[in-house]
Write a structure and sequence with these properties.
This protein is of the alpha/beta class and 598 residues long. The chain contains 13 helices and 28 strands. Strands 13-26-27-28-24-25-14 form a seven-stranded mixed β-sheet, with helices on one face. A seven-stranded mixed β-sheet has the order 22-19-20-21-15-18-23, with no helix packed on it. Strands 1, 2, 3 and 6 form a four-stranded parallel β-sheet that branches. Helix 3 packs across helix 12 and helix 8 crosses helix 9. The longest helix is centred in the N-terminal third of the chain and has 16 residues. The protein is elongated, with a radius of gyration of 31 Å. The two termini are 57 Å apart. The protein binds one RNA strand of 74 nucleotides through helix 6, strand 9, helix 8, helix 13 and strand 22.
Length: 598
RNA sequence: UGCCCGAUGGUGUAAUGGUAGCACGAACGACUCUGACUCGUUCUGUCUAGGUUCGAGUCCUAGUCGGGCAGCCA
């Protein structure tokens, strides 16, 4: 039992098949410590799918008093860039902040594991440390020396050989899923020759693709990944992190399991497409005869929310073709986009945890995500009055220049809600949607001759409409029933509708960006071309009228604009004196879906 | 025509041989100075066929359907 489970105030720890396995291993004391890892390749931005993996790995570390290493799986110098390690580190730290920071495994800056000992743990077996000025994330590329030494050990054991087949020939020799492959003609080279050739590969004697280091397993295996998969390839390009020391680079299947081992990882969690690789993961570790306990790989299904596209390739296309403004566009499911949009990390965590961990490829209704966001924000966001699409309303019985001070509640969900003053004046703005000259059935809002309450102020009666020459509405003239204000004799008078408003003379302007889903179909990825199902109205920009207290808003603030939704300042485009708000999400709206509504 | 994995309401997930439950969603209703929140009611499910068993969502067999595997990507 973890401390968390003993704390009645903590939410019940989720359980799933992986956590069950981990719990069993903890009970058996199979590992000295539970160590997981989150191993992105720094070749793109993190998205909500990664959030599931992050929360699973850090969640387990957290529940078991272990650690989760952030490790960059950077074994392919052609694709990786420093820019991505920075964004990924930022995103991870944001997502786990206040929840699992204490589990984040970094390593001492510059630390590398020592060269292999043939049957023992490396001398500097890496123990994670807390993030700080003298620490940094883990990098698979820091293990290149060690990995290279292990490769030599594999050659000595007769389990790896240098192959001269071209990439095309290698493919042909591999056979097909239903056809066995053929042994490479270079498969039976002597250990001495393999050692010599591998040394010369490493020294840069051969061009890219001329030779490779291959495992010697079984070219007839029904598992394609066991048909002598490559361990090393030649690439004469520098590495963003390892520099220009190398021209041979290890492949994922070889590097990953050993990186896990070197870091003392106990449970290596990945997605379902790696199931066929598991046998290879084990083969490498066992072929080296490394001391137990060895890390093991477990696979789970990726997250696939409706109305969103998750693959890096597809998101890249949206960025390149300028459908969105960048990787951090608030409409994108990237962590940087979601953060910019105002989604709280806690809501994201709640969502990715609530979908569970299974081996079934499921599709998750985006409504589950939206529900998690609303639930979080409903509890924490300060309420404010804002009018997105204003129409002028004149309260004819309030003299110009007079201010009626009203009291508004900041958050009715608080145990002891605080209040703030808001100014009611002769001229106010109301939402154009809140007035209908010809109302649909069951319309509770303002209509000619009707009554409605101005939230926190008073009930008003609609007396008269003023239109311009073209017939367009210019202003609505009403009478304020001032004795229906809070504290006044008729405060308890009931009307069916309550609408939001702001004083026309005491409000501020702001740009407000209204986001909607990017696609019009639930599974854009299943479409022949997702560009054809783009939602043309995924972004609408309006100049809104806000209550003046919003002038002091900061990027960290989360607001509910009453009856509209949750909003926060755009961290990128807002500046002092220039407010730009993003709509994080609308309020749930059962009215707009009402049948019979015009 | 090979191998591996999977299948529980519209969606996601739980039940570890013993009452199919929870959440999202939807519908209706109550409440309401947010058509929000909250509360109440309702809705829909074990892929098929055999077998084992007192008893099967769970175990076995076969089938159906879906996913994955032939990068010198991760």
């Amino acid at each position: 039992m973890s401390a968390e489970q003993n704390d009645p105030a903590a939410p019940a720890a989720p359980s799933d098949f992986i956590r069950d396995i981990v719990a069993q291993h903890v009970a058996e004391r199979r590992y000295p410590q539970i160590v997981t890892r989150f191993p992105p390749e720094p070749n793109g931005y993190l998205h909500i799918g990664h959030a599931k993996s992050i929360c699973l790995n850090f969640g387990i570390a957290r529940e078991q008093g272990g650690v989760c290493n952030l490790r960059f799986d950077d074994t392919n110098p052609a694709k990786e860039e420093i820019e991505y390690v920075e964004s990924i580190t930022t995103d991870v730290r944001w997502l786990i902040a206040g929840w699992a920071d204490h589990c984040l495994g970094f390593k001492p800056k510059g630390a590398h594991p020592a060269a292999v000992t043939s049957n023992g743990r490396p001398d500097s077996y890496l123990a994670p440390v807390a993030p700080g000025p003298d620490s940094e994330p883990f990098f698979a590329s820091d293990y290149f020396d060690t990995l290279h030494a292990y490769a030599i050990e594999l050659i000595k054991r007769g389990k790896a050989y240098v192959c001269d087949l071209t990439p095309k020939e290698t493919e042909d020799y591999r056979g097909a899923p239903d056809k066995p492959g053929k042994d490479s003609p270079f498969r039976n080279r002597s250990v001495a020759e393999n050692l010599d050739l591998f040394q010369r590969m490493t020294a840069g004697e051969f061009p890219d693709g001329a030779r490779s280091l291959r495992s010697k397993i079984d070219m007839a295996s029904p598992n394609m990944w066991l048909r002598d998969p490559l361990l090393y390839r030649i690439r004469h390009i520098p590495h963003y992190h390892a520099g220009d020391k190398w021209c041979v680079y290890p492949l994922y299947d070889y590097a990953h399991c050993l990186s896990d081992y070197l870091e003392g990882v106990s449970h290596s969690l990945c997605s379902l497409e790696f199931v066929p690789h598991r046998a290879l993961y084990d083969w490498v570790l066992e072929s080296l005869d490394l001391p137990r306990p060895l890390p093991h790989q477990y696979e789970f299904a990726k997250l696939a929310p409706t109305y969103t596209l998750l693959s890096k390739r597809n998101i890249l296309r949206l960025v390149q073709e300028k459908v969105v403004t960048g990787w951090d566009d608030p409409r994108l499911p990237t962590l940087s986009g979601l953060r910019r949009r105002g989604i709280p990390a806690s809501a994201l965590r709640k969502f990715v945890t609530s979908v569970g961990v299974t081996t079934f490829n499921s599709v998750t209704d985006i409504a589950v995500f939206e529900h998690a966001v609303r639930e979080e924000l409903n509890a924490s966001a300060a309420r404010r009055l804002a009018v997105l699409k204003p129409v002028k309303l004149v309260l004819t019985n309030i003299p110009a220049g007079e201010t009626v001070v009203c009291t508004a509640t900041n958050n009715p969900q608080d145990e002891n809600p605080t209040t703030r003053p808001v100014a009611l004046t002769r001229e106010v703005f109301i939402e154009s949607e809140d007035f209908a000259e010809v109302p649909p059935p069951k319309y509770f809002r303002l209509k000619p001759g009707g009554e409605v309450r101005l939230k926190y102020a008073c009930i008003i009666t609609c007396d008269e409409l003023v239109k311009d020459a073209s017939g367009a509405l210019v202003e609505i003239r009403c009478t304020a029933q001032l004795d229906t204000r809070t504290g006044q004799p008729n405060a308890d008078k009931k009307v069916k509708g309550t609408i939001h408003w702001v004083s026309a003379s005491q409000c501020i302007d702001a740009e407000v960006r209204l986001y909607d889903r990017l696609f019009t179909v639930p599974e854009p990825g299943a479409e022949e071309d997702f560009m054809k199902v783009l939602n043309a109205k995924s972004l609408e920009v309006v100049t809104a009228k806000l209550e003046s207290s919003l002038a002091g808003a900061t990027v960290a603030d989360r607001f509910q604009f009453e009856r509209l939704g949750y909003f926060s300042l755009d961290p990128k485009d807002s500046a002092p004196g220039k407010l730009v708000f993003n709509r994080t999400i609308t309020l749930k709206d059962t009215w707009s879906k009402a049948p019979g509504k015009a």
